[in-house]
Every structure is written in structure tokens, then in C-alpha cells.
Amino acid sequence: MDIKAFIFDMDGLLFDSERIVQRSWEIAGDELGIPHMGDVIYHTLGMNRAGRNEYFRKYIREDFPFEEFGKLTRDNFWKIVDKEGLPLKKGAKELLQAMINLKRTQGYKMAVATSSSREYAMGNLIRAGIDSYFDSVVCGDMVKKAKPDPEIYQKACESLGIQPEYCMAFEDAPGGILSAHQAG
Fold first, then answer.
1. What letters, b where the CB count within 10 A reaches 16 and e where it falls short, cover 113-129?
2. Which residues are CB-neighbours of 125 under 8 A, at least 6 positions away?
3. What is the layout of strands, in order, in the sheet containing 109-114?
4. How far, in Å, CA of 44 to CA of 141, rounded?
5. Which of 15, 36, 42, 65 measures 20 to 30 Å from 95, CA to CA?
6. Are 42 and 148 in contact (CB under 8 A)?
7. pLDDT digits over 15-28, tens only?
8. Is residue 131 classed as helix, strand or coil in its secondary structure?
9. CA-CA distances (angstroms) from residue 102 to 108, 134, 159, 183?
10. Nearest 5 degrees, angle CA 17-CA 22-CA 28?
11. Per-residue pLDDT tens for 27-77?
12. Three-class secondary structure assignment of 141-163
């Protein structure tokens, strides 16, 4: 295999964010009178906003208050992050550093393919001081279809100018793995 690029998922792989998102969903759900929303995250990992909203409408209730829930979860997420921080996953910094060394010495390219919004993703990458590691960042609000659809990985490959068969994906969720595999 002649790998030329590395494409990384972000939440749950690089950042230990899912536990904070889960807490923020639980708090928001309680505030809206929708119990156990923190448990719902496990059914929506890897989905972009449109995919989550469709899931909520189908499995929680047809008139799910998307906008209010989104605002409450964002507010609660940032309150937690402001108080506790948003840590990188154990080993993420070392893995990225090893990839940067390969990038410098052998010309590899690196991208992020995350279901999160661009604003959220870039903010986290910048705060962690790793934004400059990546040649491209493709986000959930930049694609029409969510993981496991291959669109996000196809766009990441295109943004790097590398054919999918020459890219290696790093993922932590089944939907993301399927997305990368289907992209080639």
C-alpha cells in the first residue's frame, strides 16, 4: 500500500469530547423535560446535525425542539469545557506528532473529517494548538450526507488532492469506519 495521506476523525478520536457532549445533552434534556437524552448520544455518534435531527424526530418525538436543544447543549457544553477543559485523548498528541514527522520528512498530507460543525471543529483544533498540523479540515456542515455516507471522506481526499486508495483513515465509531471504507 502506498499511503500518501492520513485523515482523522476528531471527536472521540482526537478529543475526549463525547463524555462532555453526553453530559450537556443530559442537562439540556432535563431542562426540556426529555429524560435520558445523554443516553441517546450512543445512537447518533458520527452523525452531523441533519442526521441527528432526523433521528430525534423519528425516535424521540416528531416535534423535537431541535433549535432549543441545540442552544442548550452548546451552552452547557461550553460551561463544562470552560470549567474543566477539553482534553485530547490519551496518545493523540503523540500520534499526531509522529504523523507530523512523516509529513515533514516524507511529504504526507493530513486532514480532519469530522461530523462536527466547522466553527466548533476549528475552535477546538486552535485551542489545542494542533490546527496547523492539518492541510485540510472537512466538517459536517460542509457535506449533505452524514457518516456512514462516504461523502465526507471523499471531500477530504479531494481537498488533499489524493485519491482515496492512497489515504489512511483514523476513526473510533462504526459509522465513521464505514464512511471511510465506502469512500475507498
1. bbbbbeebbebbbeebe
2. 10, 112, 131, 134, 137
3. 136-139, 109-114, 5-8, 167-170
4. 16
5. 42
6. no
7. 999 899 999 999 99
8. helix
9. 6, 13, 19, 24
10. 125
11. 999 999 999 999 998 888 767 778 889 999 999 999 999 999 999 999 999
12. HHCCCCCCCCHHHHHHHHHHCCC
Helix (H) / strand (E) containing 119: helix 118-127
Alpha-carbon distance of 184 to 154, in angstroms, equals: 8
For 100, the grid coordinates are 507530523
Question: Within 13 Å, how many C-alpha atoms sit on residue 174's CB side?
Answer: 3
The percent of residues in the chain predicted with pLDDT above 70, rounded, is: 99
Spatial separation of the C-alpha atoms in residues 130 and 128, rounded to whole Å: 6
- Distance CA(132)–CA(83), nearest Å, equals 26
Chain Cα centroid distance, residue 149: 14
Torsions phi, psi for 135 (to 5 deg): -80, -25
Distance, CA of 57 to CA of 69 (rounded, Å): 13
CA 125 to CA 110: how far, in whole Å? 13
On whether the CB atoms of residues 170 and 98 are closer than 8 A, the answer is no
Cell 453526553 appears where? Answer: 22
Residues belonging to the chain: 184
